[in-house]
Amino acid sequence: MTDSAIPLNWFDYKLPPDLIAQQPVEPRDAARLLLVDRSSGALSDRTFRDLPDLLNPGDLIVVNDTRVLPARLFARRLSGGRVELLLLDRNADGVWRAMGRPARRLRAGERLELLDSQDEVTNDGVDVVGRDAEQVLVRFDDEEAIERHGHVPLPPYIHDRLDDPERYQTIYARDPGSAAAPTAGMHFTVDVLGRCRSRGVQVAPITLHVGLGTFQPIKTVDARDHEMHAEIFSLSAATVEMIRGTRVSG
Description:
Blueprint: E1 32-36, E2 43-47, H1 51-54, E3 60-64, E4 66-68, E5 72-77, E6 82-90, E7 96-101, E8 111-115, E9 121-132, E10 135-140, H2 144-149, E11 175-178, H3 190-198, E12 202-208, E13 233-234, H4 237-249
Parallel strand pairs: 3-12, 4-11
Antiparallel strand pairs: 1-2, 5-6, 5-8, 6-7, 7-10, 8-9, 9-10, 12-13
């Protein structure tokens, strides 16, 4: 790593708002794909559905099978105030660490009533059981209420409502735990993966839960001083062997 400063303005570029897609392309594999010829450096425009034709037998695709939690919830205090919770992680005792708004007013022992999609009070409740620095600690009466009333926490640059929450999941999403989707894999379809396998391309899963740090703006002048959030990952021995074997075979 360089000992010299990495000024944040090195990464400045203009991105017109109208070039930020607010709705996903349909079908998934119609997304644009930029192909770089590593020998010549030539660039060509393709679509993601062309991917199987660009791979060779023996290649390996590693996919992240994390699933985005509907981690954004709204609740009402018994005093009538509205609360927003953004779940971060859960400990072994069933207590969730969450960002709360307004966080400073929430105290241990307080009872919250979850709101549904119509902003109506439900029978599902949450207890504030403590604090952890700037976060609050909460326990649900029934954790299935997260799926019933939670919203997918979209990136701050997405302003349109997502009508189908499954479009913010990959087709192989399996293990709930992410605050954001592993977007590089969102263009895979059953057909694309099937054609990859038919060409002798292997597919191996890992799990990396994307944390809220992915949304955290860098506020330091020197990018090296930015503190990254930790993220949880796991991979099986079988995946390790597939990666090792592919690297050895070139």
